[in-house]
User: Fold these one by one.
Assistant:
Number 1:
Amino acid sequence: MAAYNFSIVHLCVFLCYTISLVSYVYGSGFTVDLIHRDSPRSPFFSSADKASDRAENAIRRSISRCNHFGKKSSSAKSSNKLGSNITSTVFLDGVGDYLMLLAVGTPALPLLAIADTGSDIIWFQCSPCDVCFPQITSPIFAPQNSSTYIDIPCATKACDALSSVSNAIPCDGAACKYNISYGDGSISIGNFARETLTFQSTSGAETNISVSNMAFGCGHNNTGIFSARGAGLVGLDAGPFSLVSQLGSSIDNKFSYCLVNINSKTATSKLTFGSNPKLVSGSGVVSTPIVFKARSSFYFLTLEAISVGETRIPFNTSSTTSAVPLEQGNIVIDSGSTITSLPTDFYAAFEAEMKKAITIDPVPDPNTSLSLCYPGDSDPASVPTVTAHFTGADIVLSLLNLFRLNGEFACLAFRPTDGLAIYGNVVQNNFIVEYDLVNKLVSFMSTDCEMA
């Protein structure tokens, strides 16, 4: 109950603050806080949960996340000018790892929504509900109470564009409809509309950024594994109706994040819309091409190999694939997955080299979710240097990028998969990761995200 009250207080304070502001042009973009669900700073943190339970739940979410990437997606562009840089607050939860605080409508209704680099549409639950999941942190958005809500008509370019990426729904002659389904069986169906969205910025002088005419899904039928703590989803992939694409040139078509390690007790992660002034050019920054694939708006990268010490393990590892050219765009980078998922043969070769290099005897994971674990108090000096080799970018991973700590055990934060390979968020901790959609690059700079 304490966590629930904390969330309501946060939302009410934000609501009172937002009502007093008009749309504000912020010259350098904006940034929002991201708070990990398992952090003591999270309103959803419970001291009654064991560290091992939190670790296991995160692993299960990552496994479910693989199904999430089997979804059909959705996307558009906006002329709103915000300058070149914006930041916002995000919490770990549900089908993605983070929730984002924003407000919708006029007057502004504050909501918590999943922030998802693997989704390409913005949607919130709306009344009247045909079917809605429980929503405990805020009222369900009522479009009839907002003076800035507008249904997008059927006979428009926006509705036509939506129909090419959303499951088809016959138009009823007036309002455009959307139907988003995910690989895990979750769905959201409702009216496709435009509305004012407001973000609480933590960059520069703390203020709120209001953006009008944003296309979003007003969901009247929403079912699946969505969390009651959230109210919907904010897509951050490259689809035309994602938040990033709609902000477009107003944020230089860029966004970035800096994720603190889960063990941090005080610091928050940051999500920045616009050019990140802390991502400077030079020897500390490495960049790799984004590979966009047909009928997909995910951020695919090309992982060529992983090195354990001096041993380089190529992505094409098995004897049956060694002669096949390396697939371009063979792994999705995703902030919503805790664990990194690798093809089964590739993972097996990587794990074998780690076992060889670490002289400490491994111990079994009592939950059997991760296959290589060591006592949590093991000597970190025994861990070899591990480098992820992307096209044009070698990323040296630290101990905290490699292992998921849960107090008693330190388990390799990688798992085998027969499905899509995913570069998860543990390996991205303490890097500024910037997405440049114009130049089609993802850049990494090692940093202390607690100080960023």
Note: The longest strand covers residues 207-223.
Number 2:
Amino acid sequence: MTACGKGIVRVTYADKSIIPDYMAVDISIKSMIVAAWHRSTLNCLEENDVIPVYNSASVSKSVSNKELLDLGMKTLEQYPFDEMLWRPSIKFTTCFYYYYIVTVIEQVLPAIFVDALLELIGKQHKYKNVYQSI
């Protein structure tokens, strides 16, 4: 989301309607502490006892990728980043080939162009390794 806000990432390989299982870190940590406490209060396991398995999820309070995008864009309008490469926007796609082509056209080639331009005018490269990770 930060890379999208800075204008570096322009496309993502995801479905807008999917509801990811994101969870706040504090909730996950609290769940681990409660699970450890619960396990410590049980008696020692015997051979026939079942080993307890603890799961933690946040599906009931999750939002879809579209809602997350809308919330992020609304927040960016109110509190924009100080330094942006391009105007923040994102495209969702479930087609890998479209994702790959748009990534090359809208992320890699502009990054190479900006890098070459900065090299020509002798400026320091802020986003030097952006395109090398793809």
Note: The beta strands are 11-13, 91-93.
Number 3:
Amino acid sequence: MADNKKQIMQARWYFGGLASAGAACFTHPLDLLKVMLQTQQEGKLSVVQLTINIVKKQGVRSLYNGLSASFLRQMTYSTTRFGIYEVAKQSIQGDTSFLTKVGIAGMAGAAGGFIGTPADMVNVRMQNDIKLPQEKRRNYKHAVDGLWRVYKEEGVVRLWSGASTATSRAVFMTIGQLSFYDQVKKLLLETPYFEDNIMTHFVSSLTAGAIATTLTQPLDVLKTRAMNAKPGEFKSQWEIITYTAKLGPLGFFKGYVPAFVRLAPHTILTFMFLEQLRINFGFVKEYENL
């Protein structure tokens, strides 16, 4: 009987990719500033100074350089990791433990990181172009043009340059965002002070964004350097690590503030959009009340 069942709205597998791509449209300028700070080996430019310099020299539109690649990255990387996570989580009967969610998130992140690497590399290069002299810019017209030119000029293997770091980063990013979001939300809903509403979604996603930033920043710095490097500039991943280490321990957290300032809003918007998609367009799954 209907009275003996509980209806639950769940997210479809592709909702995460759509939500993340929508969030990227708002947070792309912050992502661009993060990449530019990470690829600086020297210099003391702050986020504000960097933003002013870019806008003065190239205009406000330059802050959206590489937006097509950012959008493509989310549609490949985030669709994969959210899709695997949601499908796997929903296939488990009963309440899913936190450790199980961490395991699922790790596997989903690994798959998403590998699949999203080509678009991620083009995104990094397009964003970094604006700080280079005209003669050194790659000048990709859009994401697909960037993918084609890398394939044509550098070979198909180059499309997965930095894949190991990107995949490792994606594992920690997905654990920090997805599993911790679910866990924090669950803990909040178990108190008498929170309900399944926007405030709960905001607090949960903000917490998840802070955790994800801390877990992934060292790998993010290494990934950015690997993807932005010229062919043959670094012989191995260890060489990138030692190169970054010359800046000291904080070199691995270079760009942490803009990374958090970018990732926190992106995480918040992603889960806000995801929850609205779930509530308004999700399918109903019924469970027997015991």
Note: The two ends are 13 Å apart (CA to CA).
